[in-house]
Amino acid sequence: MVEIIPKRVAKLPLWLGILFYVSITILLVSVLALFFLSLFQKRASQTLQNLEAVISQKKPSQELLEKEVFSCQEKINDFSVLVAEHQVPLNFFSFLEKLCHPQVQFTELSLNSEELRAGLSGNAESFQTLGQQILIFKKAPEIKSVHLSKISIRKEGGALFSLSLFLAPEVFK
């Protein structure tokens, strides 16, 4: 059935209108918040990627620097070993000068710093002087042993000799 007389439309309560507008406002705020959060998330992920790229670029250079430092440290350690084991043959001459008898002349010297051995040839005024020189060598704590290998009489008098000295490593330090 169709009614021809219009009826009054029932008026909605006020609280229902307010609720409708509040719901629409909450919906709009939620959509805007979702948009802004998505935007912030994209910016944060981009910043994170940039920072990871910077870190990955810095890390290899730091590793290279560490390798270089360790390489230098190895070289320093190697050099320290070389310096500790370095022998100075010139020190032998000042050592020998202190132990020379005034009436003994050395005419020939062969020095082997690796074997810690010195071969000396020379002449002495007498056999007694040569004996004194050998005693001086034997009393020196830096000389481990003395071997007289050759002895003969000079035409002018005195003695020709050859001897070997076996030395302590401190002589060359």
Strand order of the largest sheet: 1-2-4-3
Average predicted confidence as pLDDT: 87
CATH architectural category of the largest domain: 2-Layer Sandwich
Distance between the termini: 129 Å
What is the helix tally?
A: 3
Shape: rod-shaped
Beta strand count: 4
Uncertain stretches of 5 or more adjacent residues: none
Q: CATH homologous superfamily of the largest domain, by name?
A: General secretion pathway protein M, EpsM
Q: In CATH terms, what is the fold-level topology of the largest domain? A: Gyrase A, domain 2
Structural class: alpha+beta
> What is the subunit arrangement here?
single chain
| Helical coverage, percent range | 40-55%
Question: What is the CATH level 1 assignment of the largest domain?
Answer: Alpha Beta
